[in-house]
Amino acid sequence: MPQVQVTELILRDAHQSLLATRMRLDDMLPVCPKLDAIGYWSLECWGGATFDACVRFLKEDPWERLSKLRQALPNTRLQMLLRGQNLLGYRHYPDDVVRAFVQRAAGNGMDVFRIFDAMNDMRNLRVSIEATRQAGKQAQGTICYTTSPVHDIKGFVAMAGELASMGCDSIAIKDMAGLLTPYTTGELVKALKDAVDLPLHLHSHATAGLAEMCQLKAIESGCDNINTAISSMGGGASHPPTESMVAALRGTDYDTGLDLEAIQEIGFYFHEIRKRYHQYESEFTGVDTRVQVNQVPGGMISNLSNQLREQNALGRMNEVLAEIPAVRKDLGYPPLVTPTSQIVGTQAVINVLTGKRYQTMTNEVKRYLQGGYGKAPATVNPTLQQQAVNGGELIECRPADLLPSELDHLRDEIGPLARSEEDVLTFAMFPDVGRQFLQEREAGTLSPEPLLPAEGQSERRAAPTEFRLALHGETYHIKVTGVGHKDKAERHFYLSVDDIPEEVVVETLDELSLENGGKADAKPTVVSKRPRPSKDGDVTTSMPGSIVDVLVKAGDRVEAGQAVLVAEAMKMETEIQAPIAGTVTGVFVQKGEAVNPNEVLISIES
What we know:
Number of strands: 21
Shape: globular
Helix content: 25-40%
Number of helices: 20
Distance between the termini: 76 Å
Largest sheet: 8 strands, parallel, barrel
Oligomer: single chain
């Protein structure tokens, strides 16, 4: 048995799992020389949700992040997580976009592409693997491990054989939720090693408290590489601590050869860095054996709790976790990993918050049930499928076979905002968010969401998020439900006033300088004055979100059930339908606006 190799996850999956993917490049670069000196087999630092988080929240150019990490880590293989035909987004992209994305990622310094498909549909991996090999980089074919009535070791071994035949350089077991148990791990690894003559890597989350034992059994059964995260961001929804596994194997036939004391020193650095992101910490990222039932992956749980908090529904997390397995069964037991984890998770949230299962169905669930993401592992709920497809044809082929090339169209659409092919690909991944990012960059207004000071780090007291306000003899119960990005001198605040949602914009007239005895002069303006629903023809949304598209205008005639709006919540799009047939008498929203329940978005008169 040769030395066990280690892939370090501190710069990607660790903070995605614990801190909602919010670690900034500025906190990575100072420690890169020490990381580069360790001798890891690879360092995962890109892909997954990092691209989205960079553009949406951190206002960093993800391509610049990659190139800077490449410069800072000259001696270490860089590794990324790629979602096959989904790339880093939530839909399938045409083959020309997939090939261009892989080519530019390789050109900016990526060495190893861990390529997976959320459905384990091998057809969706072929183009990404081909593009990686054409770029002269390592293609790591990935099996998404899950449990269900239709998943077994024999099936996983068959997948490995297909990946090998596609030309993969190695095979990875991706246990994204921490479902593996030690003896099953040993059996699976042995079966894979007997069947396929390729290096085998194991990626497992520690959510159930079993991952270290699973890694040890995997090593004893022939696993070549384990994935770990430095201890200050290891354990729980993250991964087995690097230092623990290095120590466990030290002096044995499996010794990693890595310097334990040097890794510990890096751990102290990230111990302090983690404090900067305390606002994204969640009570749901520790050891939780319920994952063996709900199967929520480590990379999703911190984001899910953060999203529920934004919906004022964090207290309903347990209901959502109970609903997820039911939705997964209805969808034919897909492995829960991006994007299927978001598809299933968001639908579960909608089912719980509305109290009406599938009355509101996201566009992604409809696309999934039509076959737009590939072949489901098992038979889907036929009634649900009929509701989603609504007389349309099911997709039986590889979904991307139906997609025309679109790179030329994307270049024309984004125009001069794109300074490079990388910018075009950013726009391709997330059209609305990507365009906004490029516009803000052009205007010089890029500003990341603020980090709140940790307790004891500042003398300034944090503002309360829930309070009572007495005004003109009336008392109001106020909750701050969200804070938008600062745009020049303005900032949007999302409030609940006596349980009625409002949006307020505060325009700062003088700089806030209370520490120096200065004065703060701010002018609040209530932006959202939409009417409250009072009749059958009032169109509302079941969840807070933003408007992606307005499909009708005043005077239009609509039928009951006709889509009149498209809204986005929790990164998933939902069509909002007309509750009655009639004439549109008022449209109170525009594309891009934030909306809340209990607001009339469109009015219809029969």
